[in-house]
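Form 12-C: Joint structure prediction
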Amino acid sequence: MSAAQPKPRFTNAAREALTCYLFLLPWGLGFLAFVIGPVAASFVLGFMDYEIVTPARWVGLANYIELFTDDARFGMSMGNTLYYVLVFVPLHVIVATLLALLLNQKARGIAVYRTLFYVPSIVPIVAGAILWVWILQPEWGLINSTLRSVGIEGPLWLASLTWSKPALILMALWGSGAAMIIVLAGLQGVPQHLYEAAEIDGANRWQRFQHVTIPMLSPTLFFILVLSVIASFQVFTTAYVMTGGGPAESTLFYMLYLYRRAFVLLDMGYAASMAWILFVAVLALTLVQFKLASRWVYYEAEQS
Amino acid sequence: MARVTTEESTNVQAGVSRRNFLKGTAAAAGLTLAACVAPGPQAASDMAAPADEPVNIQIWWRINPTTEGVIQVFQEQHPEITISLGDLGEAVYGTPKYVTAVAAGKGPDVSYQNRHTFRQFASRNLYRPIEDLLERDNVEKGNFMAGPIADLTWQGTLYGLPHTAGTRYFFWNRTHFEEAGLDPDVGPETWDDIMEMAPQLNKMEGDRIVRYGFLPHFPPGLSDQLLIYAMENGGVSQSEDGRTNLINTDPWVEALEWCVHMIDEFGGGNAAASSFMEGFAGQPVDPFAQGQVSMCSYGNWMIGRYAKFPDLDYDGTGLMPVSPSNEGAQVNWSCGWTFVIDPNTELVEQGWEFLKWVISEKYVRAAGTVGLELEKAEWARQQLPGEPIFAPTPPVYQPAMQFMLDEYYSVLPERQKIMMQRYLDSETFSVGCGQIAGLAAAELWIGFKNAWESALTKKQTPQEALDASHADVQKALDAAWENLESA
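Section 2 - Result
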């Protein structure tokens, strides 16, 4: 009589699941320790007075109350940031789309042009910022020198209360290459037969763009829009490097103010509460964008 | 002609089974996590090195050829100590890298610190008190310049050893003075003198000023110009008890009004003057060095740096020009660099040994030797005329200063020797920046910048701008005292 085959301790499915979780474990531990942990800690810190070098003290909602009732800089920095978001994001989407349309042509050397427009987006941001400080220099910078050669006296750019934010937006638009590549990929994914059908129906160039390109591109544009809004609310590096928040705090963006409270004034509890307000604001705005997306974003799969 | 400069400055391989791979992965993850829990200073000191092996200490300073050179000299003179040199990062108006490292218990054993925010951080226990070490080794406080020692003292306790000091310094271009018919040996002593001289020194091309007699916002990008003008007008930044901020009082408002007036009246207005000054932002050469500004209020460290410009014939004084209401007053403020010991380190003895060395004559000689060699190489690279003479940054420890005077300053060209002496004279009446800034230092320096920019851009009147900055600083000051008293 033969001995009964021993029953395996784990089924194949269980073994596969275990393997999967083992592979995930290093990342999961890192995510818990370095992302979830600090996020949870920052939430708690938002209710504390914590200067890093002295023990944290529970203050309840005091930080949030001070932010909304006794901190003019909170409103001012949020105002500067909203200005940046409202001007930069639409321009960013438009510039990226126009560049993509331009570079979607069948022309000689098109790959070179695409590369040239993409390169600024991979220039390290600090290096780019320093370069733009020189370009925007009012006396002998490239922009004002060019304007002067045609009889126009350029503004003070980074030294001007009025032009400092537009100057930073102009510099940020220079880095629209990454979005341009995504839109270009979207354009090249539009089925050719849709254009042919529209042409047979008598649609002119503009109508084909309006009724074929835009709807088919809308999921891509929506993706860029959402990411741009989130990134714009976190604008920091360019202002930190190029203006330090000046002149007269005209480029003191929300994240720069948060950095100042945290790492210059060592007001970590206050800065943590600022971070959570920004998180909630950006989350709310993103949810609104998703809600509104059904009105203008066309998903072919949903229609079929 | 000899000219002097000064120092500042992975793949699973085919033969590996899945089981073994998983074991390896788990082991690697474990090691990675273990590495994330690296031993802190406490654990580091537990791993005591054998008696005959050198002890390694970490120092955050500036990483440049000069510091690397003098560290090498220190190690040769102290074979029992080796040094890992790290860069301090941003440190003048706050020192975030050091603060966060110390708070995490991972600070360097010794660090360079600026005195702009020293008392604020000393009051929060970011530095180790060194009174016990001074007493044990008979290091006399009286052998240091008084101002820097006062800056580093909080509630009667000394928290660091001052290394260098620097005061404001008023420079003028002798060639421009001669061109304008002014005596090149005599600089302005009052604001009225400046107002009289500035238009004579301005150079116009049509309606455009191409050379400025005097611009208050000098050098480009500095955040604390307002302070010296307010002091020249009798302004003090805080009450004697350090609890009341005073930057919106009359002397401050008048000083800011005067600066705005100077720019509007003799600088062609803020737009033109700012445009001109922005042209030099980020450049290694400032407009005075380029002969495009005739008089400027800057710092004593430029005495040597300006010597690199053969066409620049300049003079200067540490006795700052004062307002008419403050005539006769000797006014200046001083700041500089300091070495401190981490409050958590257990390598105090080695750190203290470095502190004593870096303030001494031995350091001055090392810095002088290393600096001269570097300067000779730079001189040759730039093909500058003559031979360089290198003098290290003036020390704060008097015996080292005497050594500096005998060894280095005695061979300076006559005019620079005079300028160095004027600087040393100004240290005797200068007020230290640590005392000026108090417990809300970081807020104060930001407040200066905000008020300055708001007034110059006409966003606010000088009074409104200073009221706003005062409110910010006073709030921070109240909170600092409250925290201190409740601790």
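Section 3 - Comments
The radius of gyration of chain B is 25 Å. The longest strand of chain B covers residues 166-173.
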